[in-house]
Amino acid sequence: MTLNDMTGRTALIPGSAGGIGMETARGLAKLGASVVLVGIDRVQAQRAAQEIRAGAGHDRVHALAADLTGLQGLRRIASQVAERHDTLDVLVNNVGLNRPRPGRQPDGRHPRRPHRARQPAGGAALHRVEVQPLQPHQDHDDGADRPARPGTARHGVTANVVYPGHGYAPMNRATPIGAFPRLYRPIAPLVLKVVAPLFLSDLTRSARSSIHLAASAVDERNQNAVWDLCARLSASILTESTM
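Predicted structure:
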């Protein structure tokens, strides 16, 4: 695939001190992008940034530290990025966590419910930050509730949903058995200790989708076709599950 030169563009990647996020940051930095890494551990994030700078051939790779499972951390990172950069071109929302049981953060929000830092992107100036729960659906005139189509967000922001595939990332290596569905728990140790290390350790493969979307022109016709197909398949699955 042909990827564009990312020189002059800024990418923010939460959850990039290791794993798939770090490989995504590495790939974008090699294309010339200015990359901001975000990790919960400051030392680990700084080490990752140093390693990526050495391989990218430039020094436009920086690290920030914050706990992004709560709104306070999100607001702090958004403020720091706005202070240091005039524009934000790419946001790869890579941060995630696995927990065996539901719980709530100090701000009262469920940790499994993702948040969106709304920030004008695509080269727009960083002038305002709103943090709100991610709303994956939008209302329509006919009363139906359908997935929001990529590219229709305000401020000219294009939103893409990417499934990177399975990867033996640090978060997956630390997955507690209780996080697996009950049916799979008996074989979970075999998957975590044998299958995943053998077949899923190359995280550069898992990072390809995000790098491609960030550094290449998206064919809207193909994008819309895939989106419509996913919407139809999801609707059929939901219909079957309610029968």
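Summary: Confidence is low (pLDDT under 50) at residues 110-148.
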